[in-house]
């Protein structure tokens, strides 16, 4: 069948091609009656806008990219869902890019890969430094997500990681726990995320007059429940004494719960545990996981607001925004009696 054209819709609706274009582009100054006639004609004819032509006319694709390391990680999967929904409410589609925490792929994302395909980019880097981001970024509007440092010219949205880690640690201290460990940081080459969360953990301990015991810092080979279970299991088997763990993320917390049970101990009676990200699985484990919950919706909306400013022509210095968090208290570290 021949492709339905803009002029076909205009003829059926009894309006000009310009009016049809305004309806397709959701231009606000179109009367309700005219919009209804045009939309009825579009539905009847099965008209689909020519994206290439729209891009030539407006300089916009109506699409943004979201780039991060690993879509299989529950936090990023849930983040992508929120971004897709919130961006859709603003008239954007979302192109998902997975970098596998590979430095070359991250460079490609910033340098050229999205040129002409998207109007802007939300990007959570895992490897690139702020200097590299400044070097490789092009004119594409960009907002960074997460804890990695950002160039002074680039917008960024994140939560206060040291404050959130300190809050989780103080919660365990309020339960009377004094031999506290940290689970889930990298074996070597600490990420910015781990560095900030360890700093908050240490700050809370020192505020209570306690020192960090290096023997209770349990690194993992990867971000996974399996790796955390193996690492914590080995630590417990070595005879370390611990009565609480602050975990870098919920996968580490889930693995830690399993390791504690396999060691013949009980959660939270013997060892209380907190996680991070409040992924959907955190409320379904047994016991359920007490977790730091970033306000993901606020993070996404703030990032999209900043991106919209850039798309609208704002060219000022980078704005670094902190969004809120809360500690969701569940069975693995219950409320203080």
Report on the structure:
The structure is a single chain. This protein has 337 residues and is of the alpha/beta class. The protein contains twelve helices and twelve strands. It has helices spanning 6-13, 17-24, 32-45, 51-58, 74-89, 103-113, 130-136, 161-174, 192-207, 225-237, 250-262, 296-311, and strands at 63-68, 93-98, 120-123, 142-145, 155-159, 180-186, 217-220, 244-247, 272-276, 290-294, 320-323, 325-328. The strands form two sheets. The protein has a six-stranded parallel sheet with strand order 2-1-3-4-5-11, covered by helices on one side. Strands 7-6-8-9-10-12 form a six-stranded mixed sheet, with helices on both faces. The radius of gyration is 25 Å and the shape is elongated.
Q: Name the strands of the widest sheet in spatial order.
A: 2-1-3-4-5-11
Tally of alpha and pi helices: 12
Relative helix content? 40-55%
Count of strand segments:
12
Integer-rounded radius of gyration: 25 Å
> How many angstroms does the end-to-end distance come to?
71 Å
* Secondary-structure-derived class: alpha/beta
Beta percentage is 15-25%
Please tell me what the overall shape is.
Answer: elongated
Low-confidence stretches: none
Major sheet characteristics? 6 strands, parallel
N-to-C series of helices and strands: HHHHEHEHEHEEHEHEHEHEEHEE
Mean residue pLDDT: 91
């Amino acid at each position: 069948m021949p492709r339905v054209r803009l002029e076909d819709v205009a003829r059926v609706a009894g309006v000009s091609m310009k009016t049809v274009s305004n309806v397709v582009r959701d231009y606000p100054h179109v009367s309700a009656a005219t919009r209804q006639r045009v939309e009825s004609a579009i539905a009847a004819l099965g008209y689909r806008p020519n994206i290439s032509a729209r891009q030539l006319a407006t300089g916009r694709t109506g699409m943004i990219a979201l780039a991060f390391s690993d879509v299989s990680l529950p936090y990023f999967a849930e983040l992508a869902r929120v971004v897709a929904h919130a961006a859709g409410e603003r008239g954007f589609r979302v192109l998902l890019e997975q970098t596998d925490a590979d430095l070359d792929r991250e460079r490609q994302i910033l340098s050229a890969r999205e040129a002409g395909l998207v109007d802007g980019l939300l990007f959570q880097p895992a490897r690139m430094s702020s200097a590299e981001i400044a070097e490789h970024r092009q004119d594409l509007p960009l907002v960074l997500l997460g804890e990695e440092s950002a160039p002074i010219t680039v917008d960024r949205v994140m939560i206060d990681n040291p404050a959130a880690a300190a809050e989780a640690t103080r919660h365990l201290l309020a339960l009377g726990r004094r031999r506290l460990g940290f689970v889930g940081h990298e074996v070597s080459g600490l990420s910015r995320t781990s560095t900030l969360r360890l700093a908050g953990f240490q700050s809370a301990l020192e505020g209570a007059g306690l020192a960090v015991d290096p023997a209770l810092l349990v690194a993992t080979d990867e971000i996974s429940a399996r790796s955390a279970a193996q690492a914590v299991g080995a630590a417990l088997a070595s005879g370390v004494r611990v009565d609480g763990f602050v975990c870098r993320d919920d996968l580490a917390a889930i693995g830690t719960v399993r390791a504690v049970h396999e060691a013949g101990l009980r959660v939270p009676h013997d060892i209380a545990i907190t996680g991070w990200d409040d992924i959907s699985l955190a409320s379904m484990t047994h016991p359920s996981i007490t977790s730091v919950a970033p306000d993901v919706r606020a993070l996404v909306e703030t990032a999209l607001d900043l991106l919209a400013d850039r798309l609208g022509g704002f060219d000022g210095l980078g704005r670094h925004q902190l969004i809120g968090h809360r500690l969701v208290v569940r069975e693995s570290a219950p409320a203080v009696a």
